[in-house]
Amino acid sequence: MTSLLQGAGLGLRRELMPELKNTNLDRIDFFEIAPENWLYAGGRYAKDLRFFTEQKNFACHGLSLSIGSTEKLDVELLKNIKVFLDEHRISLYTEHLSWCSDDGHLYDLLPIPCTQEAVHWVASRIRQAQEILERQIAFENASYYFSPPGAEMSEAQFICEVVRESGCLLHLDVNNIYVNSQNFNFDALSYLKSLPLAEVCYLHVAGHYVEDDGLIVDTHGADVIDPVWTLLHQAYRECGVDAASLPTCLERDFNFPSLVTLLAEVEQIRRIQAQHQYPGKAAVAAQYQSQRSA
Question: I want to staple 221 with a disulfide (CB 3.0 to 4.6 A). Which of 28, 154, 255, 278 is the partner?
Fold first, then answer.
């Protein structure tokens, strides 16, 4: 089994495991898990996880690194995650560009102020984390429900600066862009185009919930809606590489439908990827070398 991620994947949740163990997994290219939920798992849970990691490639998407916090970076967590990644031969680890700790762990992913000082602070912590993990991390554009005061740049500019200064990659969450664009009344495509798309290595799609007052909440508890699928199309087009080379995961955390419905959404990712088959950098370089050799 190669460690290379590509194609269409599914978030692996414990509730889905029994049925998945008795299902043909050919329609799923990879799985995603949150390492914090599995670091100390033993017994049946550890055995179940090994059943899947021995068959499929995996990505890890963390929940609690709190890269934007002013608290001390959790070095012990990173060391444990590195052991976990190496043990299961998982090449990709991503986290949220947000913070979730202040003298203890919080249960929300909160936005980071878009200031130059915050850029330097977050970038230095990312570099430290990458040194501990001995690999690049990808950071996800997060959903948010308020804008911190004192902004010196747009959120997209902030992400660009953090990626540039830290040397990290971008985990592009298409649903988060849609949710934020609706809640804060901005154009999702324009925002998408302003991100450092050359550094995208991983994508998410998910469903969300609309409150009675119109607020959209990124719940991962519903089907993906058509405008998010359309934005996924646009993301692949703007990235300009073979879409299958950009692994894309369907997130579903609760309110699970039938496995048939989930696999249909994974298949929808694959169909959209098939419509965006552009030559990537490696293919272009190989063609160039072939022409030189002729």
Answer: 255
Which DSSP symbol is given to 37? G
At residue 141, what is the residue type? N
Among 199, 205, 195, 201, CA closest to 246: 201
Sign of the dihedral defined by the CA atoms of residues 200, 201, 205, 206, in that order: negative
What is the per-residue DSSP string for 130-171?
HHHHTS--EEEPPP-SS--S--SS-HHHHHHHHHHHH--EEE
- The rounded distance, in Å, linking the Cα atoms of 53 and 84 is 12
Helices (H), 194-255: 226-239
Nearest residue to 173 (alpha-carbon basis) of 190, 154, 193, 192: 192
Residue 203 contacts by C-beta under 8 Å, 6 or more apart in sequence?
171, 172, 173, 174, 232, 235, 246, 247, 248, 249
Q: Estimate to the nearest angstrom the gap between the alpha carbon of 235 and the chain centroid.
A: 14
* 3-state SS assignment for residue 269: helix
Digit-coded pLDDT (tens) for 118-130: 999 999 999 999 9
Indicate the pTM of the whole model. 0.91
pLDDT tens digits, residue range 61-81?
A: 999 899 999 989 999 999 999
Tokens 């060391």 locate to 79
Helix (H, G, I), strand (E, B) or coil at 173: strand
